Amino acid sequence: MSEPLLSAKNLVTRLFTDSGTVLAVDGVSLHVGHGEAVALVGESGCGKSMTALSLMRLVRKPGRIISGEVTFEGRNLLSLSEREMRDVRGGRLAMVFQDPMTFLNPLMRVGEQIMEAVLLHQRLGRSAARLAALEALERVGIPAAKNVMDYFPHQLSGGMRQRVLIAMAISSKPAMLIADEPTTALDVTIQAQIMRLLAQLRRELSSSMLLITHDLGLVAEYCDRVYVMYAGRIVEEGDVFGVFANPRHPYTRALLRSTLSPDRRIQKLSSIEGQPPNLIMPPPGCRFHPRCGEKLPKCAVDAPPDFALAPGVGARCWLYEGNGHAAAP
Amino acid sequence: MPPLLEIRNLEVHFPISGGWFNSPRAVVHAVDGVYLHVNPGEIVAVVGESGCGKTTLARSVLGLNQPTGGAIRFRDASLLDAKTTQQMRDYRREIQMIFQDPFDSLNPRKTVLQTLAQPLRIHGVVPRSQIRAEVIRLLNMVGLSPGESYLGRYPHQFSGGQRQRICIARAIALRPSLIVADEAVSALDISIRAQILALLQKLKAELGLSYLFITHDLGVVRSFCERVVVMYLGHVVEEGPTERVFQRPRHPYTIALLEACPLADPVIARKRTSAPLTGDIPSPISPPKACRFHTRCPMAQDICRTEAPPLVDDGRGHISRCHFADEFERQPRFEFGASRVMA
Asked: What's the predicted TM-score (pTM) here?
């Protein structure tokens, strides 16, 4: 197997807040292959966004990356200088966020902002950069892109703003796009447009995508592989079809059971009792054990390792002790 | 049995001031000619995207904004004509609400006891000496038990799901018959959302409640609601029993929503081939003439641009506002992932 495009090993990121140290990302390992669409799915506060920010080295105070390794195109991003990192970020490795308004300058015309991104990463003159920006806008399906170049962000709808952000992200023809809840703020019909657009661009640019989301529906429809995250750790990984048909970790099972999908009517609603733990003082042992219906005595004491069950399939759960072999911690 | 709540030809227009001497510059057509009813013990969903008027509709039912036309009747009495304070107070007692963000709807400086005691005191639901016991009973009912241990806590000491439970306790404190829930579970995580829905189901059975359930989540609609009303730009475009609407949709917008919503099943999700709706949702300030959906409708014909379609009942309580509603009769049952031939 060839080297993955991006891989993270034992990534640890903590937030040093007044009320204590938050173990936001606690030993996360994942990889994204060339041309692959991979999902990182979990509920709020599970550390999925913090993982994405750590991969981009965008963690801000009071957060800090403590240890681990992030390899992208053969280079360890965590050991690059800030200057080198700026070249990678928004260049070969681009990101799209949930709320486009936070990332667009309200006082700058849309075209100028995309040009800025182009000029930062490509050796082009202003007129060539303007053409590149226009091409990017057309590529993301903005009608009358020529006019939109002169618009300010507030003149655009939420869906159009997200398209502008995507245009900015793809203007440098990145090898990989990290999309953090890119459609959460949008209506369903607009969400469908944006997700299809991302899938189409990924094919055209033969790039990879890491989709950070809480929506199992988006995972099912648009991703090849999935990592399920709970309380700062990845608890299950596998290809999307396998995880949905045969979830291994009790958390994934419970999550799928309590998901209400429009394609079926569920008479008796099932839910996961309790609530996700506070990551300042997570429970000992397996972090899911207080809510788990299948727990064993040792779950409250020892944290399970990641058991590899098949190539690319793993679950961090003691149920698989003996069935799989524990991967290196 | 007469409906608990009946809305007829409701119209809510908001003027946008800012012209000369603050004269109205334009009008937002938030809700336009909406008919809707909720029977006793029923859960009715209102679905639609931003700007469809679902929240304005909810606020009108609660008396929080003044409709510009039409009628809202509750237990066969007009809500809009409730002039005296006493009448309004009676409605407030009968119709309660739960909102999306339980953080915004609880006073951060009041303890749980203070928050829940207030409506009991104002409406004199129980004698003053029993208020504390009643609050404890309510807390236990919504799954915050033992209730005693929560009385002195403040909203920030609770998680989002627990805060929503407090809001529910407050909503049922006055023993209402109708609860209007505006995106009440949308902000909650999947595992918590299911808990809250199960709680609402339990309370409905125990207290004989009805819900008007405003949401954009079709998964919640299918498993939780008995009837569904689909809105687009201030109009009701389709209404019917939930299973019937999901299996035999009679409006192109409903079909587009069903085609666009994410499905938690990779096998079915990937069989879907139809292109998503193009374009943005038009502004309710100047909604398209005739059929409001024609600018985005894949089936639109000339008539859709010139004549507004009427609301037509198929005789079984399944209503559609489309010139071609009958065409859908000839279509096979709607199935996710199945390819369809549109007229």
From this structure: 0.92
